[in-house]
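Notes from the pairing session

We agreed to fold both candidates in a single pass and log them together. This is the raw record for the first candidate, unedited. Please don't reformat it; downstream parsing expects exactly this layout.

Candidate A
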Amino acid sequence: MPLIDRDDCALVIIDVQSDFYPPGRLDVDRQRFHDMVRRIVWITALADRLGIPVVVTEEDPAGSGHTVPEIRDALPATAVTLPKNAFAVWDNPGIAAAIEATDRSTMVLTGIETDICVAHSAIRLHQSGRRVAVVDDAVYSPGPAHERGLRRLAGEGIETLSAKELFYDWVRTIEEANAFHDTHADLAVPPGVRL
């Protein structure tokens, strides 16, 4: 697959909400979830600084809360946050319109859950003719559902890559990577990402 062109992609953050996994959910690996959130914060800050549009979804915000504060605080002023009722982002008319409004043909997906909302979204966006790339270390489902979701994506021909790989696709050269680090030294690299 070709490299991801930052001038032709949008970032879609799916349902990373404060009450999605209440404390009673004992199957949730809280450290893995927290690490995923930190990677999404970092990717969101990268997108902001590189001028990449961001669309955020919230499934049933009345019941699952709003986007976690760490991600909300990293969102660019131009980001759009919309409620989601169908599992696939493309099946929600308002979200589909926001995606179309980015005028980008590559969608980079992060969020939860890998096997349901992320998978449904990736498959439907792919069917709509868009290129889709799922950041495999910036998506999450509890237990074996995460790996099952990644296998389903692979079976559907959906690309996956890491947050690190995404960064290097976006900057492309040593000179630009070094310039980015020099200019944005405040942007801490999250756990599991070695640049």
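Candidate B (folded immediately after A)
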Amino acid sequence: MTSQANLLLLFSLLISATSTVFSQKRQTDKELEKALKEITSDFNGDVGIYVYNLKTNKEAAINADTIFPTASVIKVPILLGVFQKIINGELKYNEPLVYDAKRAYGGSGLMQFYKDSTQTDLRTSLALMMGYSDNTSSLWNQELAGGGEGINTLLESLNFQDTRVNSRTKGREDIWKRYGWGQTTPREMTDILVKIRRGEMFNSAASEEMYRLMTNSFYTDYALSEIPPYVQSASKQGMVDDSRSELVMVNAPSGDYAFYFTTKNIEDESWEYENEAWELSREISAFLWNYFEPELTWKPAEGTKELTTGIKY
């Protein structure tokens, strides 16, 4: 066999081995799954959890393939829809936009307070959507992405079968009444973030910019409060009266891990810091950090909940 043939054979074997690694079936972390079931056993409502360690290829799941409402977590698929338009040349990342006060939509966010005819751009609108969960900019971004119909077509093409936009989407009016703005499963929403983290969502440049946008969340009161502030995390939160959800990727020293915690039909619909679902979110996040980083045990400083000025969350 010639040296060239040897090189071709070696290259072929390397490609084969690499493909095998990336196509390996995820293994269940039985210890982690058991612990999560114990932690959630007394919760007053329905819980879904999916945890995936990108380094070990292990997972833990509770109702991971059950459909839950997303609330504002649907803004992650909206982000995908906008970036597809950017990649296709239909939009520019710094596309100039002019705000119309008629777009104002209540709830979270800052854009609703813009003056009419304020000049802004698409990048700012996306940053507000992901960082502050801005509802006004999110609905605008959904429109720019081709509406719910366009985003859902994209999701289907990416083989996400249960993640869909429902609000302002033709033909999904009855589903909207059940799930609200969007719907997903814990496994699918986690996998979307994993693909972004690995540079596999469209291309590496798009994935990296989307990931950057997701690392600046304003909502650090919940799962993020249990992750050391000096460790980078990407996230998106969603919350309505009877459902609270969080999507998180932690760039931990020992290896990245991602999780999606979601609920529905919760009994405690309060909006206080001690809401049962938010307490559970913090408990799970703290447990995961200490489970994956046992040598770096950490907990929030005393008084984090109530600052020395007397201001409470």
